[in-house]
Amino acid sequence: MTDGTGGGPPHPRRRGQGELEAQVLAALRRAPGPVNAGWVRERLGGGLAYTTVITILTRLYAKGVVGRERSGRSFVWAPVADEAGLAALRMRRVLEAEVDREAVLARFAAALTPGDARLLRDLLDRAEGGRPAGGEGDAGDADG
C-alpha cells in the first residue's frame, strides 16, 4: 500500500470543489464578455488541467450559474447572475432540498430582524404585483 504521495515532487494544495467553482466564477465576472475555457484556465493559473476547468464550467452550467453558447467546435461561457443572484440561487436550492418547506420558511422568517422582515415583506409584495415598496398610500395596510 502506498501513502498516496507517489514519491514525486510535492503538489500544490488541492482546492475544494466549492473553492474552485468560486474562482472560476470570479474569473468569468472579470472577463470582457463570454470567454472559452482556455481563457478561464489561464486566469486561474496553478497548472489546472483543461478538463478540470471544463468539468467545473459544466457543473456551473448544470446549476444554472453560467450560460454557454456554441463558438466553433467548443463553447464560450459567461456568468448569468451577480453575487446577489448566486446567493439567491443557493438559498432556493437549500429550500428545494427540504421536505417540510413550510417549517423551513417559518423558522427562517422567525429568525429575521424586524428590519429584514419588513424588507422581505415589501419585496414579496412587489414580486406579486402588490403595493409599492414601503407601503405608501396602501389603504389596505392597516397592520402598520
Automatic annotation (TrEMBL):
InterPro entries: BlaI_family, WH-like_DNA-bd_sf, WH_DNA-bd_sf. This is BlaI/MecI/CopY family transcriptional regulator. Belongs to the BlaI transcriptional regulatory family. Keywords: DNA-binding, Transcription, Transcription regulation.
